[in-house]
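Hi everyone, sorry if this is the wrong subforum. Our group has a chain we'd like a structural model of before ordering constructs, and none of us has done structure prediction before. Sequence below.
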Amino acid sequence: MEKTNKVNENHVKSAMRTLDILELLAGYPDGLSFMDISNHLKLPVSSLYNLITTLIYRGYLIQTNRGSKLHLGSKLAQLNVAYLENVNLILLADVQMEKLREITGETTSLAVLHGTRIVIIHKRPGKGILQVINPVGTRLHAHSTGSGKVVLANLHEREIDELYPDEVLRAFSPNTITNKILLKEELAKYRNQGYAFDNQESEEGVWAVASCIWNQEGQPFASISIVAPIVRINNKDTSTWYKLLKDSADEISAQLGYKNNG
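Answer:
Right subforum, don't worry. Here is the predicted structure as tokens:
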């Protein structure tokens, strides 16, 4: 037990030192040398060497010449851009999500595509007592969800093949599409109509409809969806929701700087 605790402490210590290095350099735009960092943090150069060389290798720090000063790298700028894009996306989408929630009474979700997963980054809970519980941060398989399929539908076929090299896809319920050819056929339909469904494909008892959000570069990357228990949907006419949902997604895309030239 003592050995395990010591290993964990060492991992935490390394993480803390890594963050100390980055936060220190953030205050020195002209950069610092290894020795400068060592003096500021009161740590021997030998303790810093592996951490700093790893940060350089991963792009979080740059050192133009051996022995020269260290500066923050471009990878941090990329993370900052991604963070700001997500924050901006949430702020813009929230207005549309609340409008859809008021009209439908159901939960609205905002999600972004990461590889073959769709990640929920914002939610507006529905008004009913019975709710679908997928908290912010939930990662679902894109091919089994409306929010994932509507983004996949707008990717190039080559990208689909790269994401799904195998012909057989994992099943999560009896309704999940498990054949890549059939998935592509369904994606083509969703691409044309502008919205995609999840008819108990990710989980039995769950229904959803989603529409794609595009970024300024013209790339499909996120989606907004209406999610509800299937038992409540069976008693509702949802046909008027689809255009409202697509209009909301288009409005968010436009506010992000997307120009639809089609």
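For your construct planning: The domain at 84-255 is CATH 3.30.450.40 (Beta-Lactamase). Strands lie at 61-62, 71-72, 107-114, 117-124, 139-141, 196-199, 206-214, 220-229.
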